[in-house]
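Hi R.,

Here's the chain you asked about this morning:
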Amino acid sequence: MSKRLSIQKIPYGKIGSIQIDQFILTNANGVEIRIINYGGIITHLFVPDREGRLEDVVLGFDTLEKYIQPHPHFGCIIGRYGNRIANGRFSIDGDTYHLAKNAKGHHLHGGEVGFDKKIWTAEIVEEKDRIGVQMDYLSPDGEEGYPGNLKVKVTYTLNAANELAIHYEATTDQNTVVNLTNHSYFNLNGAGNASVLDHQVQISADHITAVDDGLIPTGELYAVENTPLDFREAMAIGERIKQTSNPQLAKANGYDHNYVFSASSDEAILQAKVHAPLSGRTMEVLTSEPATQLYTCNFEKGGIQGKLGKTYKDRAAFCLETQHYPDSPNHPNFPSTILRPDEVYKSMTIYRFK
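And the predicted structure, written out as tokens:
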């Protein structure tokens, strides 16, 4: 392992008698990532601004107790299925499965007790050019209604190039569906420091998956050209977010849309970029996934008390949740999320900071 990379493990708290640990990853540029093995949560992410000043750019809490309480999935691993499944129901080869309905009659982010609320087995990863932590969890057959015993491995790594890489892998002993992602909330001006409406977003997508009033895909692909959903050229989040004459934007009260990439790959390729003019920080998103969900913290109008006593309000952050399409199991025209016993689910996303 390079001397310019380091990792340490410290106690973070307990859930009952079970010790929860925090893993602190650092590189020579001052980038520091803190991850806990409850929910695989990224609790802190310090990156330099244009002057070299370090600041935490992800929303979250100061204590384990806050993470155990209900919150909007700050920094978590999401599974078995990220995003929504309509009516909590899907079929594989004629067999129908019923999932927890935890979001207005639909299934969202793995159900009532998804991967974000699980205690993961954690192991330090040390290699020549990267350091990290591997998280493992066995999701038993029937958990939240999903078929099959699913073995999941999620590995977070940091390198000298300021790249936070997330590698996902899963195997099953029965036919099932899988769609894993991470739900970090970013503010490149610093967590809790004003809104992200000034952030310039660019996403390599000609279409989104159109949604109904319940934010469930209709099965149609909606062209972003000549709409406020078009981020093919860099545009500030706040530039068009109030153009609710657009029906797709109005349904979500802002951006909460699945952007479809024109190409996918076994390797992570550059698909999105966000720049904060105030701080000078830029985040690039590289992924092997066919889509990403852009979410602009549309519902926290009352505010959530976060780290360092700061209150996270409406538009306090953005998410880019790399993924397969929402509700794919119910749309044969969408890329398949079915995993069979003779297959291995693999996915990779890299958040690169400049």
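The CA atoms of residues 187 and 299 lie 16 Å apart.

Let me know if you need anything else.
M.
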